[in-house]
Write a structure and sequence with these properties.
Shape of chain B: globular
Helix content of chain A: under 10%
Low-confidence stretches of chain A: none
Order of helices and strands of chain A: EEEEEEEEEEE
Number of helices of chain B: 0
Radius of gyration of chain A: 14 Å
Distance between the termini of chain A: 36 Å
Strand content of chain A: over 45%
Shape of chain A: globular
Oligomer: heterodimer
Radius of gyration of chain B: 14 Å
Structural class of chain A: mainly beta
Largest sheet of chain B: 6 strands, mixed
Distance between the termini of chain B: 41 Å
Chain lengths: 117, 113
């Protein structure tokens, strides 16, 4: 079955450590996204990529980094510069990232919960 | 800057009652609006997508309307069931700002048997 796989599901990090969250999709989608969700709040965009080897900052990119070396993969690194990294992280993809057609309907992974100890 | 608001933040209804969930947005220059469902600790599942030129979309017991000029969308769920208990989020795709999605904070729904 096609879909998006995020790993790990749960992750604990000590202060000062960098951690990387994995996101893999087998939907052949061009666009991929990383969102952060805090309790009782909507999703906020961290980074997005509309094509391989290209990505753009979202609304809250500070303290995060990404790469898009393969179409299927869009890993997110939470660096020690992120002051409040405890949150639920969601990866998503869409056929395209532009335009008004239904091709930009998002499909989401199951999420990764990061807790800083 | 686009702002998306969902009121109320939480809603509890008895089984069988119709659900009405509201979403409002400040900038009407949108491509489309999407409704999602999120179960606790899980990702989001897309329910309905309404293009900016459409007035409503229907899927089974779900009906979503869009009034772009007033910046409002409403999701109706007919004859609610306990399995409808979840958080419902709306998101708008803006024409400006790099074609990004802006999400509301969600409405947490509890359907009591």
């Amino acid at each position: 079955d096609g879909g998006i796989t995020q790993s790990p599901k749960y992750l604990f990090r000590k202060e000062g450590q960098n951690v990387t969250l994995s996101c893999e999709q087998n939907l052949n989608h061009d666009a991929m996204y990383w969102y952060r969700q805090d309790p009782g709040q909507g999703l906020r965009l961290i980074y997005y990529s509309q094509i391989v080897n290209d990505f753009q900052k979202g609304d809250i990119a500070e303290g995060y980094s990404v790469s898009r070396e393969k179409k299927e993969s869009f890993p997110l690194t939470v660096t020690s510069a992120q002051k409040n990294p405890t949150a639920f992280y969601l990866c998503a993809s869409s056929i395209t990232g532009t335009g008004s057609s239904g091709a930009n309907v998002l499909t989401f992974g199951a999420g990764s919960r990061l807790t800083v100890l | 800057k686009q702002e998306v608001t969902q009121i109320p933040a939480a809603l509890s209804v008895p089984e069988g009652e119709n659900l009405v969930l509201n979403c409002s947005f400040t900038d009407s220059a949108i491509y489309n609006l999407q409704w999602f469902r999120q179960d606790p600790g899980k990702g989001l599942t897309s329910l309905l997508l309404i293009q900016s030129s459409q007035r409503e979309q229907t899927s089974g017991r779900l009906n979503a309307s869009l009034d772009k000029s007033s910046g409002r969308s409403t999701l109706y769920i007919a004859a609610s069931q306990p399995g409808d208990s979840a958080t419902y989020l709306c998101a708008v795709r803006q024409i400006a700002a790099g074609n990004k999605l802006t999400f509301g904070g969600g409405t947490r729904v509890l359907v009591k048997p």
